[in-house]
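Entry 14. Ran structure prediction on the chain below.
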Amino acid sequence: MDFEMQEQIAAFRYGLIAPIVSRQSPMLPGELKHLLEEIASRTYTIPGSHRTTVSTRTLERYIANYRRAGWEGLKPKPRPATNRTSIPLSVLQAAIDLRKERPERSVEQIIFLLEQGSITAPGSIAPSTLARHLRKAGVSRQELLHNATPQKGRRRFEASDVHEIWQSDFQHTLYLPDPTHPGKRKKAILFAIMDDYSRLIVHAEFYWDEKLPRLEDSLKKAILRYGIPEQFYCDNGAAFSSHHLLRICGKLGIRLSHSRAFRPQGRGKIERFFRFIDTSFKPEAYNLIERGDIQGLAQLNNALTAWLDGYYHIRKHGGTGQTPLARATASKRTMKRVPISELTDIFLWEENRKVDKTGCVHVFGNIYEVPCELSGEKVKLRFDPFDLSVIQVWFDGKRFPDAIPLDLHRSVHKRVKTKPSESIQEIEPSPGEVNTGELSFFHLAEEKQREGWKSIPLTFAPKPDESRGDEDGN
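Output, structure tokens:
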């Protein structure tokens, strides 16, 4: 079994047990048994298997393996590779037509119809092989039955405490002067993470793109400040659906969940926040952009921070009746945290490469030297995409000395850079723009933020008891 399939299976198994292992509050008597039975009662599309259900005993084994060895404990043990039987296209098309005709038909029923109809020879198709091809063609029984289910009404949901659930999403917010193309503008994209219970923005930042490294950057900053949430809720975009994000959540014990495709209602809170950004923050930002007071991402993010802490967080929210800051600080919840060194290591990217006979590996156009005893082996490389000069070398679960750069053409991964031509438009004059003079909304919000800091009492460590020292003769 190759590395990719092992990762997919580990991701599936973690998705099953995430509601249990990501739980940071103690469970009530009998709650664990109820959760296991509920998870086991559902049907799934299991990677590398024709089975559709998982027993409670298997779930208990997954939980034990995860708590013992983390993400690696969820990977299956290597097995000898087996040859996969291919299916002729005409036979596969007939199977697809039979499934579409009656989505309730099982794989065994479809094989029976193919054999009895003399479309294929008896015993020539394995159920697991046909099931895999049907899933790849998008006609699995689960998918077809789900699409045929009529939509039902939805009910509002809210987490029961602060930092139980974080919602996140990107927004194409506004345009800034392009730093590399004078006379043109470049799109600034906002990424925000909101606490579901308090509506507190645990982190928000503008970037030039909406790729995975921007999501990782914001998530890491939010965790460093507030701790590890139980659940990270997002949409099905490319950045959110990456296997790397799932691995990060698995190692941190976070339950990663996605809203259903084409159903943004599940992310209503973060979407409402973006609408407030459009009506409150965006006009004020454009005012300063036209005046030349905001010309880059750093200045824009400073204005965003002032707006959040000096206005949004201390403004009463219409849904909760409290300010986000007051609702969040009223909780007595103790957050789970990890050391910064461990957190940095968890966010490293991973690539697999085979070491050539000279003890070198080629990665992203660069050449690195690794220990000679790894020649001919397939090693795992772990690295920070913002610094390709340092790459960790792992083999068979053991870390070896870091790779030595021999030919470093690229010091930064191409995915963390934004192409200069992206999100650019011509600057057009904006007639009717009102100049409000010296009055700046963000300046006033920043002053409000500083006033809030003054209201926070300072505490100091208690002084030694001088009188007691005198009694001791010191």
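The longest helix spans residues 268-291. Will compare against last week's run tomorrow.
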